[in-house]
Amino acid sequence: MGSSALGLELPKLHAADESNHLSDISKNKKWVKDLPLGSIGDTSKLIYHAIHSINQLQLDPSVRFRITEQMRPPLKLILRNIEKKYIDNALPLSEKRTRFARLNMQLLESYATSYKICIESALSANKGRLDKKLLVVAIHRAITMSAEAMVHNNMIYTAIPGKAWKESHRLFAFAQQNKLDALKIKDVDNSRTSITDRYKRMLLLAMASPYRMRQRDIRKVYDKLPAWTHLIEFEQGTKAGRSLERGFILSLWSDEPPTHGSLTDMVRDKHTLAITTESLISRLKDKQNHSNADHDSALIGMDEIPHYLLKQLIKAWSKPEKRSFSRTRLKFELSVVVGLPAIFHFANLLSEQSSASPYKEEAAETEWPAEEASQQSYASALAQGALSDDFSLMPQAVEQPQDEALITQVSNAARPGSGV
After folding, report:
1. What is the pLDDT of residues 114-137, one digit of tens each?
2. What is this structure's pTM?
3. Nearest to 115 by CA among 182, 167, 160, 159
4. Residue 321's pLDDT band (boundaries 50, 70, 90)?
5. What is the mean pLDDT of the chain?
6. Domain locations in the chain as residue ranges
7. Which H or E element spans position 15?
8. Which one, of 287, 309, 128, lies nearest residue 212 by Cα?
9. Is residue 394 predicted with pLDDT exceeding 70?
């Protein structure tokens, strides 16, 4: 991995072979057109090897960018088809389904890397003069691909790879510094979004506690977020005036997702970003309380969010989870045995100790009256009226003490750690 001006980890590059279709825009266009899209398996292998190869070639930034863009439509097709292989399946995933999940994440990470190389190459090739058109689209694509890779990590409940958040924060900070973050970019689905929109979408999903959601719910929320991102606000640096008790905060120089303001003692400086969700929460609550309300452009997609999920989002974006009861402080030694051989060994030891118990020896030495003597004693006692006809060997109810002080004393004595 090589270093970069933005602190991105990028692979080392070597000279490209002129016969390779990846070094020629027209040849690559024909290669993409001839992909066997009817076979998702074959197409995914070809795309994977192609993007892995292009990330190791020295190419002009504009050539690399156009070649990577040419391969985006088939990528979107194979990603959704491969996703079906491991979504709504029992966890943990089988080895085969795990391979499908890893393939999707590697494809997305490789595409994000290709756009990041475009950004770094453009910065180093045009010092003092930025190709803003290439940079804004490349940053938009890199953040989008990184966010999509995180979604797949969320859906199989695995940790986000290291540096993923750090590099996304750096890209957004660079775009914001150079006033590229608000420019609208047209995507393959004809939607127009900005770098800020894509970045907010990434943050909103992380703030929604996706590891506590079902797989389908994660995808559903992520797909609806583009219509909601304008309802959250950024306040950068120390000028932010609202209380962090009701918002989220992150450092643009960290490798961490945003966290609720009440859960961190982060010192606010020019690299911190405060996120307020009050407007979004207000809209969600309106939808929750008035399900038949008139259609509002700010509520696009909310009709497809079930009530339980809407409630979960409001809770996640409003305040952090808190324990509903206090912890009980206990101090004791706990022995743990792990593994069947160890359990079998200690079970045998306990069995041997039980067989050598002094209580059994004492019981063996006790002299019990002979059966005939017992019968005679019972008959004698019955004749004398000492035993009633409804005599039973079942235990009789014990009369409870009436003294309240005595009851309290017995109760306290039975409570662990009472000191009585």
Report:
1. 999 999 999 887 666 778 899 999
2. 0.74
3. 167
4. low
5. 80
6. 1-181
7. strand 14-15
8. 309
9. no
- Token duo for residue 346: 């200690």
Q: How many CB atoms lie within 10 A of CB 166?
A: 18
d(CA 173, CA 78): 31
Q: What is the Cα gyration radius of the chain?
A: 34
What does 215-272 look like in DSSP terms, one character per residue?
A: HHHHHHHHHHGGGTGGGSEEEEGGG--S-GGGEEEEETTSSS--EEGGG--PPP-TTE
| Residues 159-176: tens digit of each pLDDT | 999 899 999 999 999 999
Q: What is the largest CA-CA distance in the chain?
A: 118
Taking the CA of residue 69 as centre, how many other CA atoms within 13 Å lie in the half-sphere pointing to its CB? Answer: 18
Can you say whether the dihedral through the CA atoms of 229, 232, 235, 236 is positive or negative? negative
Q: What is the rounded distance in angstroms from the CA atom of residue 344 to the CA atom of residue 349?
A: 9
Place of tokens 């703030």: 207
Q: Both tokens of residue 390?
A: 């409804």
Q: How does pLDDT run across 365-387, given as a tens digit for each residue?
A: 445 445 455 455 545 555 555 44
CB 20 within 8 A of CB 58: no
The pLDDT of residue 299 is: 61
Could you tell me where the DSSP H helices lie in 21-131? 25-33, 40-54, 61-70, 72-83, 95-125
DSSP symbol at 105: H
Neighbours of 173 (CB within 10 A): 18
Token output for 156:
């199989």
Tell me the residue ranges of DSSP E strands in 152-201: 185-186, 192-193
317 near 281, Cβ under 8 Å?
yes
